[in-house]
Amino acid sequence: MLTEIKLGLCNPPEPIYLYVNQGEVDGESFVWYKFNISQEKKIPVTQRALTGYLSELRLTTKEFKGKDNLKLDIVVSADELYVIRTGVETNFAKSFLLAASLIQDFSKPLIIVATAGDENTVFCNLYDAATKTKIYREWSRDLDWATIIRDIQSVLGGNPSTISFTPKLSVVPQLVHPQDLRIKNIRTLLDYPLDLVREWLQFQDVDRPSLLDINQINELIKTMCLAWAADKCEYPNHAESSYKNQVVDAVASGADELTAINAWMQQLQVVKTGAS
User: Fold this and answer.
1) What CA–CA distances, in Å, run from 265 to 97, 185, 237?
2) Do 272 and 200 touch, CB atoms closer than 8 A?
3) What pLDDT sits at residue 159?
4) For the chain, what is the mean pLDDT?
5) Burial class, 154, CB count within 10 angstroms (exposed 0-12 / middle 13-18 / buried 19+)
6) What is the DSSP string of the chain?
7) What residues contact residue 73 under an 8 Å CB cut-off, 6+ apart?
8) Rounded to the nearest 10 degrees, what angle do helices 194-203 and 178-190 cross at?
């Protein structure tokens, strides 16, 4: 898409970054904002929607409090070049990816809407800009986010360019860290509440397990397992000792962790059933 070049004074051709977060500055509510680095000041953006062409999707690692945080950059070509930056695990990122995964032709403009949710969360609604039709895909707990990102990038990279710059196919690092996947699989097996995991992580000043050291991760797994076993044993010490013998020691001897936990759960279920 060719645009007329305006001569004269102008701002440098640098992208405008929009950061996703629900908050308030000087009595003004916002769901996304710009950030003035020199003044370390948030600048609320009152408009909740951005219309433009999705041109690139990339993962960027940014340091925060001495730790690496994975960010999703949604690059949009409009009157200016915009980059919507959000955590890759946020509700905004996931709701955007769900909708964008249905699009097979990114040569048409989209409307990206930031929508406030409960407890400071922000979701994304995506619309076809021409028809004003909402693009919606049902949420599923079994989605492979890394594959979804790669698929969207593939479609972007395969489209003939109809926008003012060439879409790039970013290299996608492994989205799910092995330790994050480890916790996810065990939490799912135990049916342990995700909110409690998040709360536990907050006490450690992190937002995902892969930022913990191995001892902390093992402690989180133990916490989840013993919480599951709390009503399965007549004596509290029995759950902890059986967990050490049948899970910790078994894994140290080379057993698969999920298999060991599953066998331990079944054994406690049998004991409980026999006692009742």
Assistant:
1) 36, 15, 16
2) no
3) 39
4) 83
5) exposed
6) ---PPPPSS---S-PEEEEEEEEEETTEEEEEEEEETTTTEEEE----EEEEEEEEEEEEEEEETTEEEEEEEEEEESSSEEEEEEETTSHHHHHHHHHHTT-S-TTS-EEEEEEE-STT-EEEEEEETTT-PEE-----TT--HHHHHHHHHHHHHHSPP-SSS----PPPP-SS-HHHHHHHHHHHHHT--HHHHHHHHHHTT-SSGGGS-HHHHHHHHHHHHHHHHTTT-SSHHHHHHHHIIIIIHHHHTT--HHHHHHHHHHHHHHHHHHH-
7) 56, 57, 58, 59, 60, 83, 84, 85
8) 130
- Spatial contact of 229 and 243, defined as CB atoms under 8 Å apart: yes
Token digits of residue 208: 């995902």
Sole residue written with tokens 């909110």: 195
- Terminal alpha carbon distance of the chain: 73
pTM greater than the 0.85 cutoff: no
The angle formed by the CA atoms of residues 169, 175 and 181, to the nearest 5 degrees, is 160
Structure confidence by residue, pLDDT tens digits, 239-258: 899 999 999 999 998 888 98
